[in-house]
Amino acid sequence: MAVKPAEMSTELLEALRNRGETEQLEQRLAELAPGRLADSLRSDRRKNAFWINLYSAEAQILSERSPLLRRLKIIYVAPSVRVAGRRMSLQRLESNMLRRKTIFGTHKPHWLTGSWERRVRVEDVDPRVHFALNCAAESCPPIRSYTPEDIDEQLEVATRSYLESEVVVKGQVAEVPRLFKWYSGDFGGRDGVLDFLDGYGFGAERIDFKGWDWSISTREFA
Fold first, then answer.
1. Mind giving me the DSSP string for 100-128?
2. How far apart are CA 134 and CA 142, in angstroms?
3. What's the confidence (pLDDT) of residue 41?
4. Helix orientation angle between 23-30 and 8-17, rounded to the nearest 10 degrees
5. Reduced to 3 states, what is the DSSP secondary structure of residue 81?
6. How far apart are CA 163 and CA 21, in angstroms?
7. What is the DSSP string of 39-76?
8. 140 DSSP 8-state letter
9. How far apart, in whole angstroms, are the C-alpha atoms of residue 114 and residue 38?
10. How far is CA 173 from CA 22, 54, 185, 197, in A?
């Protein structure tokens, strides 16, 4: 049975997990008809699963192929990911498709967004995606494969697991991963971060941001 476009990023991620070849899968993703991919991503569940899996897969592939560029963090901004006839950067996958933002973190106006991108980016941003994306750095959450059918439960597991391993509450201060600083707007600002943490049992009045280890760490599957 032919693999549906929405499932191709899952197939690519599983090939990485099993130490298989990825070049043919990458080529198939690159040659997908744009309209066919858009038709396959008709819900936020499908969009989140597709772009999360693709981001994590490509971050591993690019980091292993170009370790020097990875150390210089150039792979995040270089348009090295090919999908549906387009070249995208990892930053674009994250910011535009999953966060509806520009690469600078600001809201992207509707009139600056192409019609195809409007069809394939998420409608409602789920901040839990930040605990699913793995950029091949030591401090990243572990890699998991996400499916449209179970993504809500899968994101909840990933979020709770990452917070339990990384958040430390000392008195009224919560020591949290630095991604809460970089993406605080996705959580509703600092107060939103505190409310988010409280919802997972990490009640605090103040936040202290931990450092981030950018050392290359690929294929760290959960």
1. -B-TTSSBPPGGGS-HHHHHHS-SS--GG
2. 7
3. 96
4. 160
5. strand
6. 33
7. HH--SHHHHHHHHHHHHHHHHHHHHHH-HHHHHTTGGG
8. S
9. 13
10. 44, 35, 20, 11
In sequence order, what are the residues at sequence separation of 6 or more whose Cβ sits closer than 8 angstroms to the Cβ of residue 88? 79, 81, 82
Which tens digit of pLDDT belongs to each residue from 119-177? Answer: 999 999 999 999 999 999 999 999 999 999 999 999 999 999 999 999 999 999 999 99
> What is the number of helices (H) and of strands (E) in the chain?
10, 5
83 SS3 class: strand
Predicted local distance difference test score (pLDDT) of residue 106: 55
Cα 39 from Cα 219, distance rounded (Å) = 30
Using alpha carbons only, what angle is made at residue 181 by residues 175 and 186, rounded to the nearest 5 degrees?
Answer: 120
Largest Cα span, the chain: 56
